[in-house]
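Anyone else keep sequences and structure tokens together like this?

Example one:
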Amino acid sequence: MKAAEFQSSAVITAFGAYVPDQVLGNDDLERMVETNHEWIVQRTGITERRIASDEQFCSDMIFGAVRDLVSRYDARLDDVDFVLVATTTPDTLFPSMASRVQAEFGIGSCGAVDLQAACAGFVYGLQLANGLILSGIYRKILVIGAETLSKITDYTDRATCILFGDGAGAVLLERSEDGQGSLLGAYSHTTGSGGHHVYCSHLSGSIGSVPMQTSGKIVQNGREVYRWAVTQVPKGIAELLDGCGLGVDDIDWFVPHSANMRIVESICEKSGIPLDKALTSMADYGNTSAASIPLAIDIALKAGKLRKDDVLLLYGFGGGLTEAALLLRWTL
């Protein structure tokens, strides 16, 4: 997909986030695998993660984020007419997590769909929700990015177990009656030939001719994912900004997927975005895949950084290998 500028769009009317109470710090990982705090921070920027308990699952992250959204903005859910949940770690393959949201919050007649685009999932969810609203069929959509990556992390693999955490974020998108919406432009790109560099499978033992593990745990070639991200994401940023007639100076905040601080630093350097404009969540929460971007927004809101009418560039990238970017004006 080439970069596209929206002539009109939906507006963000509420936001919420949730992380579980249990903390997994770098010192805890030192007792589990051969690693140490300094090594982890130097290579990833991560100091701790939040981990779901044995009794908690993705639905618990989702419900927590939605309850926070309702509480913070006194939001109504009874007239929501579609629910989109982006996750790679649902409690069950079916029923969907979106249908669980409908049941938990007593939403009346609504559509409910899960989507799976790994770390790009939340941004894809916003893109798709915006399209559904602009179609004229739907007026109010709940979009959620949520993960319990701890459930599929191999805690004997020192290269990956230091990365992942759990959490969720949620937004309400509603039809803009005056045509002045939140979403300004979008971009997406896929490099499916690199999908074997980060995957999770318990069924197929191969992608094409490439053999895979079937442990049901995350397997990642970090070097190849890094190389792809720091090459592709700056290209996508340039194409999106050019397509919308904007420059780096027009962006108030850059909100990339919080995969690894070294990746974010390289992307900022290559794209010309000052690092102090980057909002991230990995230091406190680790890599939370589809939840990392809303969690970064939550941190910025609570710190008083993010203000109404700020222009944000959201950029999700990861498993697939997929990319999804969105320019939006913050309206809360």
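And example two:
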Amino acid sequence: MRRFAFTTGNGQTLPLFVETVGIADERSKIVRTEGYPYFHWLQTIRGEGLFTVNGATFALPVHSGVLVYAGTPHQYEPAPEGWETAYLTFGGPSVPDMLLTLKLQEGVPVRWDADAPLNGLLQEMLDRLEKDQDLFGLNASADAYRFLIVLRQYGRFDNRTDIVRGSERLRPLLDWLERHYADSEIGLAEMAETLGVPASTMNLWFHHTFGLSPYAYLVQLRLRKAKELLIRSADATVKQIAERVGFRDASHFVATFRRKTGIPPQQFRKLYK
């Protein structure tokens, strides 16, 4: 049995849009050497499957799933007793930031309790898409965001303890950056001094906890603050916002914002106007 629903193309103008939602009875091995063009979530409804991504192979029994980023090679296959799955594919310029903020990591098996609401969310989402004509993809986008929030709330990640421990070690610096991100003179030396460890140690802690460098974390923080100002401070110019969040010049801010989100600041502001 296979059920699936595609959303309309109009939804792809949203910060987060859904490509498709579905339920499938997996019968053969799937190999994607170039990955899938959208972010891909796959979870088990019945039976079990084997999933391979980033050089690791693991089982996906009932009450478990995995998230794969767009373009990441992967493969999966059903166990002999059969495998029924639910899946969600989605994209959008705001998705990378959302996943980073929610700490939803790629290629890490996620498990949850039998009574967690994750079990039926995709089926409910599919039912609504099959029943209602979602012309602009707004309902599907809202459902997908809600799913990601619930996944973060109820999902158990194999390395969650390490992530929590790492964030605790970095907490003094993270709090300091929240107060000083607008200072364009901040560099690795100041960050390491605030944390009280060598820069090499700080780099290791950041990569292990967040999967990115300390400076990349600072850039993400500045962009998040910029998004808040673009929405909240309607009279502020892009140049003023760039200065307020720590960018030395507006052109660098615009280029960085566009590279990270897929759209320029002014277009982002219009989306939320």
